[in-house]
Automatic annotation (TrEMBL):
It comes from Sporosarcina luteola. The chain crosses the membrane at residues 12-34. Keywords: Membrane, Transmembrane, Transmembrane helix. This is Membrane protein. Pfam families: DUF2500 (PF10694). Signal peptide: none annotated. Residues 45-71 are annotated as: Disordered.
Amino acid sequence: MGFNSFDGFMFSFLPIFMVVIPILVIGTFVFVIVKGLSQWTKNNNSPRLSVPSQVVTKRSQTSGGSGDSSASTWYYVTFQVESGDRVELGVKDSEYGMLVEGDFGILTFQGTRYLGFERK
């Protein structure tokens, strides 16, 4: 039993470990790429809508920025349309700064893609 059985275990475990981890990493990359392409295709096939709406709220999400890594920030705005439904869309930082909670206007979007907001 002793040392020789442990060596046998390690030699049988290591090859499995060296195969499973790369498969999981590659699988994750493939999943993210397929999901992104799927959303892009869905947006392209969605109608381009321009609807009266109000800016309800704004938020940002920051990640990274610890140590030597740079931070990334994403900006989101929630709009409420006439029916009472709300839609949250990602916007560019320049658009985020120009939109004010309570603004009324015409929101133009396609699927989950923000195309613009014309204040009234």
